[in-house]
C-alpha cells in the first residue's frame, strides 16, 4: 500500500464497532481520509429516538476535544450554538461558602459544556453507513 503524507492512497473498507462518541468520531476521521466506513452499534440509533432527559451528564470539551471536533468540521457549530462556557470550578467549603478556581487563569481560556446525545447525533450525521 503506497503512503502519501502518512496516509494510504488506497481506499479501505473499514468496520467501526460502536457508534458512541469515540466510534463516530473515529469513523469521521477515517472517512475524511477517503475510506469506506461501516459503523455498527448495538443500541438503537439515537438520531431517531426521543431524547430521555437526565440519562447522561453533559460533556466538558477542553482544547483537545475541540481540536478533534474541528478536524471533522463540527467544532464551530458545537461551541457557538450549543456550548456553555465554564470558566472555573466552583469549590464548596464546609461552612457553605464557595469560591472559584479558574480553569486557565493565565490565558483566560475555558472549557465548554455540550450535550452528549446532541454531539453524538451530530457526529453520526456524517457520511457514514450506520448498521
TrEMBL record:
<dbReference type="GO" id="GO:0005741">
    <property type="term" value="C:mitochondrial outer membrane"/>
</dbReference>
<keyword id="KW-0274">FAD</keyword>
<dbReference type="InterPro" id="IPR036188">
    <property type="entry name" value="FAD/NAD-bd_sf"/>
</dbReference>
<dbReference type="GO" id="GO:0004502">
    <property type="term" value="F:kynurenine 3-monooxygenase activity"/>
</dbReference>
<dbReference type="GO" id="GO:0070189">
    <property type="term" value="P:kynurenine metabolic process"/>
</dbReference>
<keyword id="KW-0285">Flavoprotein</keyword>
<keyword id="KW-0503">Monooxygenase</keyword>
<keyword id="KW-0560">Oxidoreductase</keyword>
<keyword id="KW-0521">NADP</keyword>
<dbReference type="InterPro" id="IPR002938">
    <property type="entry name" value="FAD-bd"/>
</dbReference>
<dbReference type="Pfam" id="PF01494">
    <property type="entry name" value="FAD_binding_3"/>
</dbReference>
<feature type="domain" description="FAD-binding">
    <location>
        <begin position="12"/>
        <end position="88"/>
    </location>
</feature>
<protein>
    <submittedName>
        <fullName>Kynurenine 3-monooxygenase-like</fullName>
    </submittedName>
</protein>
<dbReference type="GO" id="GO:0071949">
    <property type="term" value="F:FAD binding"/>
</dbReference>
Amino acid at each position: 500500500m503506497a503512503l502519501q503524507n502518512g496516509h494510504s492512497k488506497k481506499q479501505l473498507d473499514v468496520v467501526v464497532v460502536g457508534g458512541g462518541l469515540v466510534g463516530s468520531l473515529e469513523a469521521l476521521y477515517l472517512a475524511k481520509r477517503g475510506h469506506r466506513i461501516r459503523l455498527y452499534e448495538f443500541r438503537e440509533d439515537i438520531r431517531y429516538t426521543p431524547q430521555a432527559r437526565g440519562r447522561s451528564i453533559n460533556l466538558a470539551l477542553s482544547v483537545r476535544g475541540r481540536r478533534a471536533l474541528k478536524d471533522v468540521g463540527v467544532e464551530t457549530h458545537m461551541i457557538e450554538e450549543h456550548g456553555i462556557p465554564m470558566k472555573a470550578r466552583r469549590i464548596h467549603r464546609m461552612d457553605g461558602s464557595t469560591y472559584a478556581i479558574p480553569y486557565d487563569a493565565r490565558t483566560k481560556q475555558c472549557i465548554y459544556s455540550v450535550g452528549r446525545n446532541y454531539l453524538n447525533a451530530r457526529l453520526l450525521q456524517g457520511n457514514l453507513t450506520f448498521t
